[in-house]
Amino acid sequence: MLIDKLLYQQRLQVAQLAEQGRQRQKLLQAETWLLRQRAGAFIGSAPGLMLSFSAGVVFQMRHNTTVKTLRTMVGLRWLRWVF
């Protein structure tokens, strides 16, 4: 009798956790879809196109010493800001 009650409680808890997992998965999928929509809208906007073009130009010039120096300086500042 006691074992049956404990097993029932465990099954109930497992069912609740499974439902929470399904809900979190749905939420994650919805957030991912929304992020893709926002990213697509941003890339199609004027600032997004300018950012994309600038990144392409910098990538083409990645072997230039000025670009390397700038990338190193920005990277160090970013690391200091994060930590």
Give a quick set of tags describing it:
mainly alpha
Count the beta strands: 0
* Relative helix content: over 70%
Q: Which term fits the overall shape? A: elongated
Structural class: mainly alpha
Low-confidence stretches: none
Give the CA-CA distance, first to last residue: 57 Å
Number of helices: 3
What average pLDDT do the residues reach?
86
The gyration radius over C-alpha positions equals 25 Å
Strand content: under 5%
Oligomeric organization of the protein chains: single chain
Q: Biggest β-sheet: count, sense, barrel?
A: none
Helix/strand order, N-terminal first: HHH
Task: Describe the 3D structure.
The chain is mainly alpha-helical and 83 residues long. It has three helices and no strands. It has helices at 2-44, 46-60, 65-82. α1 (2-44) packs across α2. The longest helix is centred in the N-terminal third of the chain and has 43 residues, at 2-44.
